[in-house]
Design brief:
single chain, about 180 residues, alpha+beta, 5 helices, 8 strands, about 30% helix
């Protein structure tokens, strides 16, 4: 995985997260705090600071170096406008990973999420040699489900009390995409 920036859609690009991204990540999370709150775990106030994002960025990069995660950022000029992550990468007979993402509230509805998911699918298959990707959405997250279905994912079931989101253990729809 190189650090080069790749065009996605509407002037938005995607690249690997960098250690120098903490300030821009902080700005993105502050700008999208209310927008993301229903879809993410509860966050401590520290998370929404540059220091908190430095810790988060360092953690994500440590997992990247270890080979278990790939953190990409979506950018528009210098601003970060989204995050795309392959996490829990498993080798051996499983060759699988989890896909997670979010797009800035001001960039929704422009095809950017779909373009980013397609990029991640191609990277997972062509660069990482993965066989399968899995993604989970809250049952009422129709927008994310639409992105996954447009990108060739199929629904495989409901996982009860799957993740603690917005302070509650919530059921999720599970999706998968077989890559080869």
């Amino acid at each position: 995985m190189t650090g080069k920036s790749t065009p996605l859609a509407g002037g938005v690009r995607i690249r690997i997260l960098r250690a120098s991204d903490a300030e821009a990540m902080c700005a993105a999370y502050v700008r999208n705090r209310e927008h993301l709150a229903p879809w993410e775990p509860l966050r401590a106030e520290e998370f929404f600071t540059a220091d908190g994002q430095m810790v988060s960025v360092q953690s994500k990069l440590a997992l990247f170096i270890a080979g278990s995660d790939i953190p990409w950022v979506l950018t528009d000029s210098e601003a970060i406008v989204g995050l795309m992550t392959l996490s829990g990468i498993v080798r051996g007979p499983f060759l699988s990973a989890h896909l997670g993402y979010w797009v800035d509230k001001d960039y929704n509805g422009r095809g950017i999420g779909t373009a980013a998911v397609v990029f991640a699918v191609e990277a997972a298959r062509d660069e990482l040699g993965l066989h399968r990707l899995q993604a989970a959405t809250l049952q009422h997250n129709a927008a994310s489900q639409k992105i996954l279905k447009r990108s060739g994912f199929t629904e495989i079931g409901v996982a009860p009390a799957y993740l603690n989101i917005a302070g509650d253990w919530q059921d999720h729809l599970l999706f998968q995409r077989i890559l080869f």
